[in-house]
Amino acid sequence: MLQAGEPVAEDVETQILDLKEEHGRRDKTGAVGPGLPQNEVAARGLAEAAACMANTPGGGALLVGVTKTGELIGTALDAEWLRRRIYELTEGKLTVDVQPTTVAATRLLVIVAPTALEPIRWRGKIRWRVGASCEEIDASTWHARQLSHAQYDWSLQESAVGLESLRPAAVAQARDFLLASDEPLAAELATAPDAQLLRRLGAMTGGDKLTHAGALAFVGREQPCLDYVRRDHAGGDSTQRVRRIGRSLLEELAEVFTHVDANNAIRHLPQGLVAGRVRQIPALAAREAIVNGVAHRDWNSPEPTLVEHVGQTLRVTSPGGFCGGVTPANIITHPSKSRNRALTQLLADLRIAEREGIGVDRMVAEMIRVGHGPPEIQEIDGPSVRVSLVGDDLDEAWMAWLAELEPREESRDLNSLLLLRHLVRHGWLDVICASPLLQLSVGEARGAIVKLGRAQLAGAPVLERVRGVPAEAEPAWVLTAHAVARLHTSDSRQGRRARLPNREELALSYARARGRVSTTELGSMVHASSTNVGGVLKRLEAQGHLRPSRRSRRGPGFYYVYVSTASEAADTGRDG
Fold first, then answer.
1. What residue numbers bound the domain in which 552 lies?
2. Among 18, 91, 421, 509, which one is most buried in terms of CB atoms within 10 A?
3. pLDDT tens across 530-547, in order?
4. Which among 136, 152, 168 is the end of a domain?
5. Is 261 helix (H, G, I), strand (E, B) or coil?
6. Model confidence over 5-14: pLDDT tens digits?
7. 223 and 76 fall within a common domain
């Protein structure tokens, strides 16, 4: 109809399709002016319409550059700029796909708005499509209606692809993944005939068509799913590249895994540590990062998931921002809200990745166990999610120290690893700093500290309370003198310098966080007599960081008060 230049019938616009022209292009006479690549007025109008579509169960599409009557006026809006602006204008809650198309020699844009996982407000109001218009609803109505559509999952829907399109190499790769797990049930599944294998994996519908997840995994798509780039060092030329069309996701994953392993150095460690052979970037962490980059991404985008392997750093960038309320501050503990539940489950059933929701935990724990920092997970422009695994030198001293923990499960427990890493880096902790570190409530963080407090290191307790803390204050914790001595011994064997903060650094960080510090507290933290640490606090007073709680500087209960800097006071004012 549009191609032929015919008028559009009134019923063309529906609950899932909205025809849009750019706001801001017509003058007072109604004449259409020239289009611009960036039009803020148009972006706001389209963001409002896209939010309405996304709030509607099943989502919908906007066709930009067309009047309500079907007149093709076209658009010059830049697709990537518009995609980013809609994301920003909806406060990071809506990631749309924006694709140019040409109809009757006129450039148009197709904006696909997926179903929102939480209501998207525009100017404080929630709207969704009722027929061809947007109507306001309240939050309770939205949630009630969404419950009946909560099982919608694009990757679970039937595709147009049948068994005849299966790539034999993809099916063979699926069987290899199953057999590599060394699980009896997986080995039995690997021997099933093709159709039965796909049905048991949930990759086929009752109509003998592949689901979208099955089509991606066993057939592929027009564009590559993955783009792997290897550079020996930052700024260097690429030495290897894997970006091929005409293959399935499973084949692409297998080849990328092979390249990552080949470029991930192996260290041979003494028996008794984490393992006899350890890769520079833990293999499980690397695999989880790559698989998460395809399992949870936005498949409306034609862009591949980018895997950059530079030196000993692995960086995975996947299209689509965080969804379902996930942020870097809660990603460890927030319930998983995958965009593609069926695809995520398929990859788990093939034993390629962990079950939905615990892949991030695995990455964090694996990196910390070998002495690396936790993964750096952030949302960048696009929007996209970027996961960086920085595999600098393996810390053999740290691994040897962890190997002495009893029970042994503590050296694999994510909360315990995060707490121990913080103690070694900062010298002390309490529930106030542990809560955001573990991404748990204060009560849950307290439980994690108590649990670690029951552990032992080489037969002696690993934690102890700081003495001198006021009865009304939250207790603080430090490593025991025995645990510190074992760490120093392990460091010296590996030729490392002592890693704990010095006394001034420790006293200052403690006072800054808790508002005060006494000689009893500092002496307890460094396992020394309180009379031997008074000079440390006097020096911090002379530097303007502390002031005495009383002029006499003596008597029971005497302590020093932390003095805020001008910049800290300004930050406090802004926070308030």
1. 501-576
2. 18
3. 889 999 999 999 999 999
4. 152
5. helix
6. 454 444 445 6
7. no
